[in-house]
């Protein structure tokens, strides 16, 4: 697994997470390597943060509905927490790979 792949997955999770109209073409998996993937993560996270900040309690407490597929019965609040969990998981993977690579480089 490459760091760019993990970053691309992260941006894909976030940019595809909007139960409202998400950004079209915001995430592009493995396009341009690590630097482009990191830029994708930053753009997707900015979009996600602005979306979540714009939601009021009523929107967060409302079930997502059919458009959310598997998460149709989930509330916006539980879905935001799910996405936060995914972000923690995938960014931790990228950080682990970064640190393992750095440690291997030092030993060589």
Describe what this molecule looks like in 3D.
The chain is an all-alpha fold. The chain has one domain (3-107). Helices cover 67% and strands 0% of the residues. The chain has four helices and no strands. The longest helix has 32 residues, at 76-107. Mean pLDDT is 76; it is low at 21-30.
| Mean pLDDT score | 76
Model regions low in confidence, pLDDT < 50 over at least 5 residues:
21-30
Number of strands: 0
N-to-C terminal Cα separation, in Å? Answer: 21 Å
User: What can be said about the biggest beta sheet?
Assistant: none
* Category from helices, strands and their pairing: mainly alpha
Q: What is the total number of structural domains?
A: 1
Principal-axes shape call: elongated
- Multimeric state: single chain
List the helices and strands and how they pair.
Elements: H1 3-15, H2 33-54, H3 57-61, H4 76-107
List keywords for this structure.
mainly alpha, elongated, 108 residues
Summarize the structure.
Helices cover 67% and strands 0% of the residues. The chain is mainly α and 108 residues long. The longest helix is centred in the last third of the chain and has 32 residues, at 76-107.
